[in-house]
Amino acid sequence: MTSSEDIVVQPPHSATWLVHLDRTMWVGGVRGLMLQALHPIAMRGVWQNSNFQQDPFGRLRRTADFVGRTTFGSPAEADEIGRRVRGIHKSLRVSDPDTGRTHRVDDPELLLWVHCAEVSSYLEVARRGGLGLTERQADSYLREQRRSASYVGLHPEDVPGSCAEMDAYFKQVRPALRVTEEAASAVRFLLWPRLPQELRALTPGKPAYFPFGALCYYTLPAWARRMYGVLPEVPQATVTAGLKAFRLAMNSLPEPLHDHAFMPSTRQMLRAARERLGAAGYDTAKGLRGLTDPRRWPKGLAA
User: Fold this and answer.
1) Residues of 249-276 as b/e, b for ≥16 C-beta within 10 angstroms?
2) Residue spans per domain, the chain
3) C-alpha distance from residue 153 to each of 79, 88, 107, 262 (Å)
4) What Enzyme Commission number(s) appear in the record (predicted)?
5) 132 CB burial (10 A radius; 0-12, 13-18, 19+)
6) At what angle do helices 108-129 and 40-49 cross, to 10 degrees?
7) Inter-residue contact 56 to 193 (CB < 8 Å)
8) How far apart are CA 240 and CA 234, in angstroms?
9) pLDDT tens across 126-137, in order?
10) Measured between alpha carbons, how far is 181 from 195 in angstroms, rounded to an integer?
């Protein structure tokens, strides 16, 4: 029997599937961008080398594509997007007006910050929203995400692989963080984004986005919210309740409907993953999310 690791990068029995198939990922993704913006060089790298100012939502969708391919894509697809990302990063530079120095975008320190801000946001938001992960599963998730870090050029052994290691990393890096003009602008964009061309039909409903953006902001660590000071504080119990309501509503959406939020190429990759898994004996009648249930795995594999 073909191993699931030969079909998709992260197998259905991994902690990564539990986190990355949870719809709180949308909150985690925006929270991750807000957190990433607190690193001055990393934020300026985004500001100087992308169209983030015009299309912050597009950056979120491209991140979703990378996460999807390094989770549900085939090993070949993950290797291909990894080569593409590393090639782009290799050619880009960041100018620091404070010091006059020029930095490489693929500086391991910057790559590590972006990775940690992203995956810690996915994990923390999913758990707070009600995904029942044990401490062991949470550690497993971060350990599994070392593989995704390798696709952007990091050495897995240099990446936090447990909750304790991730906490230690943030404690170490916090003195280097601050709110630059670019970071403040980024948060404003993320609270009130410009929709990409293919989603402009949703513009009349744009005011409904602000509560979502605010929810993402309020899930930031208290120290990050104090640094930004963009919105007045609200009771965190209210934030948790809002996050749980968002998760319940989003997780109730049928998978084909939910997947329309992704880029067409991402949707095509997800369809191909379902087909490969189905051909290998997995019961994909309930989509990829259904495969978190071992009863839908090939006979004998669940044991």
Assistant:
1) ebbeeeeeebbebbbeebbebbeebbeb
2) 4-279
3) 11, 12, 9, 25
4) 1.-.-.-
5) exposed
6) 100
7) yes
8) 11
9) 999 999 999 999
10) 22
